[in-house]
Write a structure and sequence with these properties.
Elements (H helix, E strand, L loop, with lengths): L1 H16 L3 E7 L3 E3 L6 E9 L4 E4 L4 E4 L4 E4 L2 E5 L6 E5 L11 E6 L10 E4 L1 E4 L3 E8 L4 E4 L2 E3 L3 E4 L6 E4 L2 E3 L3 E3 L2 E8 L2 E3 L3 E4 L1 E5 L2 E3 L3 E4 L3 E3 L2 E3 L3 E6 L6 E3 L2 E3 L3 E7 L5 E3 L2 E3 L4 E5 L5 E2 L10 H6 L1 E2 L10 E2 L26 E3 L6 E5 L6 E7 L4 E7 L3 E5 L6 E9 L2 E10 L1
Parallel strand pairs: 1-3, 2-4, 3-5, 3-6, 4-7, 5-8, 6-9, 7-10, 8-11, 9-12, 10-13, 11-14, 12-15, 13-16, 14-17, 16-19, 17-20, 18-21, 19-22, 20-23, 21-24, 22-25, 23-26, 24-27, 25-28, 26-29, 27-30, 28-31, 29-32, 30-33, 33-35, 34-36
Antiparallel strand pairs: 37-38, 38-41, 39-40, 39-42, 42-43
């Protein structure tokens, strides 16, 4: 009898662990997906019909079979929280990009209909073709806050009307994070890491961080207060429409900092720091001259600044870049209100690299962190502890050469790497 009881207990335990809810077809009345019924396996296409809400509770995991997606003609409300997010992912054991179709939004009642048709907070979207397709979505705004998007072909397809908003999100290892999105679209306070392409066309980009891309950013309208570093190409810009602004951004430590494919006189391009890029700080590939005065190039030598720029002096097919007058000192990236950026969503980093007499360390979250700097032989040459989001260290006492740094908190090592002083 004792043996039978043990077998029964094991059976009941396994039944609980492997419980799941299979879903497909139409949703015709208000429906709630509950965490207790996890995971939801979407075996075939689902349609949320007009006038109907699909509400998804914190902690729900929705797994989609290959070639399957969710179509929203009504309303989708997926609001998780910091401790219990909502996941949309593939049902394959080893998923790859485009493993499922994604979410398609249909909202074509331009005179009324549902408003706030899609709201997502603390959601994860992974392995989709287009995670959110807003091509015929007219019942917005479409709002995504504190979301994480990874390993998708592209997070969005087009933008919804009247606007599409991404705030405090992270985009990682997608083919393209965000594609063409107009209609007063905005992405702010977000992090873009190791996508092939970061953003290709967005109306408003504010206080974002980009690293690890083939091309980090191709802005469409206004870009303010962003940090763009450690990419192959930092910015590739077509300044050929109205309302082009590129203001108070930092473009550094990329292979090529900035490529300008087209340029017209109504561009506002000031207050930026563009320097320490490996091959070129800037390339002008257009026959128009470009006024890029009132920016910082990390030098006060006009000849040196000119040597980091490709324009009509190197190829007569191109226009000429005017960078005078230039800023003589580079400030930390600030937003339009002159407030320091909140670094808590940005990865830790040390820059510029190579450095000269000053080294800036950025530490996310402002947690108690110790900075260690070692010389090439491994001897500790500098140690400092701080709770600030960023700190500037005077390094004029160090000799030129190779150094290694480490950022360490109570949680362990945050970041380590190699630096060069020259």
């Amino acid at each position: 009898m004792k043996t039978i009881k043990n077998v029964l207990l094991v059976f009941l335990f396994c039944s609980t662990v492997y419980a799941q809810t299979n879903v497909s077809g139409g949703i015709y009345s208000n429906t709630i997906w509950k965490k207790v019924n996890n995971p939801y396996i979407v075996t075939d296409n689902i349609v949320v019909f007009p006038g109907v809400n699909l509400t998804i509770e914190p902690g729900v995991i929705a797994k989609f079979n290959p070639g399957v997606g969710l179509e929203v003609r009504g309303k989708l409300i997926a609001i998780g929280n910091e401790n219990d997010s909502i996941t949309f992912t593939s049902n394959l054991p080893s998923p790859i990009r485009q493993s499922w179709n994604g979410i398609t939004v249909v909202g074509t009642d331009e005179t009324g209909g549902v408003r706030d048709q899609v709201i997502m907070e603390y959601c994860k979207g992974e392995f989709a073709n287009y995670f959110i397709n807003l091509d015929i979505a007219y019942n917005g705004p479409y709002i995504f806050r504190h979301c994480y998007f990874a390993n998708n072909r592209q997070v969005n397809y087009d933008g919804g009307i009247p606007s599409t908003i991404f705030e405090n999100c992270k985009f990682e290892s997608n083919s393209t994070a965000l594609g063409g999105c107009q209609f007063a679209s905005r992405v702010s306070n977000s992090v873009f890491i190791n996508n092939v392409y970061g953003i290709e066309g967005f109306d408003n980009i504010e206080n974002c961080f980009f690293s690890g891309h083939t091309v980090a950013l191709s802005p469409y309208g206004s870009t303010v207060g962003c940090t763009i570093q450690n990419n192959f190409i930092g910015v590739r810009a077509w300044f050929n429409s109205t309302n082009n602004r590129f203001v108070n951004n930092t473009v550094s430590n990329n292979d090529v900092g900035f490529e300008i494919i087209s340029y017209f006189d109504d561009v506002v391009f000031t207050g930026n720091t563009i320097c320490n890029n490996n091959s070129w700080n800037l390339k002008l590939y257009h026959s128009n001259n470009a006024d890029l005065s009132s920016n910082c190039w990390c030098s006060t030598d006009p000849s040196f600044i000119s040597s980091t720029i490709i324009d009509g002096y190197e190829n007569i097919e191109y226009g000429l870049v005017n960078f005078i007058p230039f800023m003589t000192s580079c400030q930390e990236t600030e937003n339009e209100n002159n407030e320091p950026l909140d670094n808590k969503n940005f990865p830790p980093a040390a820059f510029p690299n190579p450095f000269n007499d000053q080294l800036t360390l950025r530490i996310p979250g402002g947690e108690l962190t110790t900075i260690y700097l070692y010389d090439f032989l491994g001897s500790l040459v500098l140690q400092e502890t701080t709770t600030k989001n960023s700190i500037i260290i005077n390094t004029d006492q160090l000799v030129d050469g190779i150094y290694f740094y480490e950022l360490r908190s109570d949680k362990g090592r945050l970041k380590a790497g190699k630096l060069i002083k020259q």
